[in-house]
């Protein structure tokens, strides 16, 4: 199956080919044709499955086909964080390159003036975080009367971050007649209730990430004393010179400590976690993406914003308490069918967590004893 088989128009196909993608991911195969016919979609999928393109491509194609163009917003994509909003915007940049479709992105934490100027010029697609969207709507800079396509992305994370009330305030402001594309990695009851009120006979798509992401990842566990973990990390980083490496720490405090230890060993790294300001997180992400720094230390919540296509190596400096988190973590490597490596450092007191992980993934981890 190639993108050509999905009824995508020539200008978008040209942009996809330029990005080097030939074959669509499972969610794209299911979602793109359904979305192109105008159906609502309920997608249960994590980041890393290619879901952004699964909703962005059909929306660009629908809007490119419009005969009459005006300045009004015709598609709204709602996402929980600034990092994700920027990633989606980059994705639309790539696929809309050879079309006349204009898009913009808005989020909080920065001065609104540039965003307001962009809105005055007019955009077809608006990518937004809930707080800034409601804020600019209250100031009458944004009107949603002409929205034909509405995407709610990472709905479960919106719930976690306390945005559900904002979303409920926003929904009545959208036109009744529209296409809704709804995505969530998990489906708790509150989310199911929301989909029932929002979607009309949706096409349901579930992409099971558990073992499918894990299959393309080589996993090794190092049994190591807690105090020797930093020596092991330094030794591995020296051996993987030139590769981008994402290191997971269970706590913010430990993430900062690892950065200091690596700095002493002459290895540049940055930490990304909830205590860092939005700007500090964004600049660390940019540095990591562009290769300015090759080692990023992250906590679990902060890492959900990281979407880097070819990340060869993920290291679990600490084991997570919940086995599902392990799958989320290592799923950052081996993206879109690339091979990846995940190394896990396990101290004596963490050994009991290993069985839970093996039970969940259905894979035995290859074990290495590490002693200095």
UniProtKB/TrEMBL annotation:
GO cellular component: cytosol
Domain of life: Bacteria
Chain positions of motif Q motif: 1-29
Pfam families named in the record: DEAD, Helicase_C
InterPro entries: DEAD/DEAH_box_helicase_dom, DEAD/DEAH_RhlB, DEAD_box_RNA_helicase, Helicase_ATP-bd, Helicase_C-like, P-loop_NTPase, RNA-helicase_DEAD-box_CS, RNA_helicase_DEAD_Q_motif
Uppermost EC category: hydrolase
Swiss-Prot/TrEMBL catalytic activity: ATP + H2O = ADP + phosphate + H(+)
Keywords on record: ATP-binding, Cytoplasm, Helicase, Hydrolase, Nucleotide-binding
DEAD-box RNA helicase Q domain location: 1-29
UniProt-listed Enzyme Commission number(s): 3.6.4.13
Record-annotated Helicase ATP-binding domain positions: 32-205
GO molecular function term, any single one: hydrolase activity
Domain called Helicase C-terminal: residue spans: 216-372
GO terms classed as biological process: response to temperature stimulus; ribosome assembly
SUPFAM superfamilies: P-loop containing nucleoside triphosphate hydrolases
Family: Belongs to the DEAD box helicase family.
Name of the featured protein: DEAD-box ATP-dependent RNA helicase RhpA
Organism of origin: Bacteroides stercoris
Source organism phylogeny: Bacteria, Pseudomonadati, Bacteroidota, Bacteroidia, Bacteroidales
């Amino acid at each position: 199956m190639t993108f050509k088989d999905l009824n995508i128009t020539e200008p978008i196909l040209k942009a996809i080919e330029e990005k080097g993608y030939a074959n669509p991911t499972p969610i794209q195969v299911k979602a793109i044709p359904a979305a192109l016919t105008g159906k609502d979609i309920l997608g249960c999928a994590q980041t890393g499955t290619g879901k952004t393109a699964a909703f962005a491509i059909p929306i660009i194609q629908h809007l490119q086909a419009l005969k009459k163009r005006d300045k009004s917003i015709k598609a709204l994509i709602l996402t929980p964080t600034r990092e994700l909003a920027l990633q989606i915007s980059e994705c639309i940049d790539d696929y809309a390159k050879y079309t006349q479709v204009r898009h913009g992105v808005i989020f909080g934490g920065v001065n609104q003036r540039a965003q307001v100027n962009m809105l005055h010029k007019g955009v077809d697609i608006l990518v937004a975080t809930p707080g800034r969207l409601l804020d600019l709507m209250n100031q009458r800079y944004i009107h949603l009367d002409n929205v034909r396509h509405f995407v709610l992305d990472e709905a479960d994370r919106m719930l976690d971050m306390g945005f559900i009330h904002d979303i409920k305030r926003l929904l009545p402001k959208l036109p009744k007649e529209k296409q809704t594309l709804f995505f969530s990695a998990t489906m708790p009851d509150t989310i199911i209730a929301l989909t029932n009120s929002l979607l009309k006979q949706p096409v349901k798509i579930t992409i099971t990430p558990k073992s499918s992401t894990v299959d393309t990842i080589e996993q090794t566990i190092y049994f190591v004393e807690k105090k020797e973990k930093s020596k092991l990390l330094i030794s591995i980083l020296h051996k993987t010179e030139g590769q981008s490496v994402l290191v997971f720490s269970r706590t913010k405090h430990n993430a900062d400590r690892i950065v200091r230890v690596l700095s002493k060993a002459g290895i540049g790294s940055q930490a990304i976690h909830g205590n860092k300001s939005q700007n500090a997180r964004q600049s660390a992400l940019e540095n990591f993406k562009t290769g300015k720094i090759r080692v990023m230390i992250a906590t679990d919540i902060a890492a959900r914003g990281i979407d880097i296509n070819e990340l060869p190596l993920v290291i679990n400096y600490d084991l997570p308490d919940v086995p599902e988190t392990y799958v989320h973590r290592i799923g950052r490597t081996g993206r879109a069918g690339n091979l990846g490596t995940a190394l896990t450092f396990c101290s004596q007191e963490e050994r009991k967590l290993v069985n839970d992980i093996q039970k969940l993934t259905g894979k035995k981890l290859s074990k290495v004893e590490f002693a200095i």
